Amino acid sequence: MEYAFPAIFFPDDNCIGVYFYDMKDCVTFGRNFDEAVYMAEDLLNLVMLDAEEEGQDIPTPTEPKNIILDDKEKVVMIRADTEAYAAMLAKKNFNEVEYDDEVEIPTKTATAILKNAGFTDEQIEDILKQY
């Protein structure tokens, strides 16, 4: 199936943070705008594919004009095609994927991820002090 959801892009430390307005646990980032869009598309495809496979309800996307943004935020509609994404995953050889161990998650993005996971402000502060 094909979907389009509003994603909120915001500056965060030395990167661009992204969260999906209608999905509380969908947070990602990129080192620049293009990478942030790519990461948002990948995340949306993965979340939508999982929701379809698990039979979960898929939220109705909010109209971008109805989203109140902070000064530095920008809303961008991100598209997903779960059939194409599933086909790509089926062809991909995951043994050849290399990960960059040097990637650091910015503080604001990490905080959003931890809040969505249910951590308290005190717990988040303690976790972030370790890094």
Give an overview in words.
By secondary structure, this protein is an alpha+beta fold. It has a single domain, classed as Double Stranded RNA Binding Domain (2-Layer Sandwich), CATH 3.30.160. 39% of the residues lie in helices and 22% in strands. The chain has a 4-stranded antiparallel beta sheet, sandwiched between helices. A hairpin with a 6-residue loop joins β2 and β3. The longest helix has 22 residues. It is globular. The relative contact order is 0.21.
Question: Topology of this protein?
Answer:
Blueprint (H helix, E strand, L loop, with lengths): L1 E11 L2 E6 L6 E4 L2 H22 L19 E8 H10 L15 H10 L4 H9 L2
Helix pairs in contact: 1-2
Key descriptive features of the protein:
four-stranded antiparallel β-sheet, Double Stranded RNA Binding Domain, alpha+beta, 131 residues
Q: What is the count of helical runs?
A: 4
* Sheet with most strands: 4 strands, antiparallel
- What would you call the structural class? alpha+beta
Parts with pLDDT < 50 across at least 5 consecutive residues = none
Strand content: 15-25%
Q: Tally the beta strands.
A: 4
N-to-C SSE string, H for helix and E for strand: EEEHEHHH
CATH architecture: 2-Layer Sandwich
Q: Evaluate the radius of gyration.
A: 16 Å
Shape: globular
Query: In terms of quaternary structure, what is this?
Result: single chain
How far apart are the first and last residues' alpha carbons, in Å? 40 Å
What is this structure, in a nutshell?
This protein has 131 residues and is α+β, with helices and mostly antiparallel strands. It has four helices and four strands.
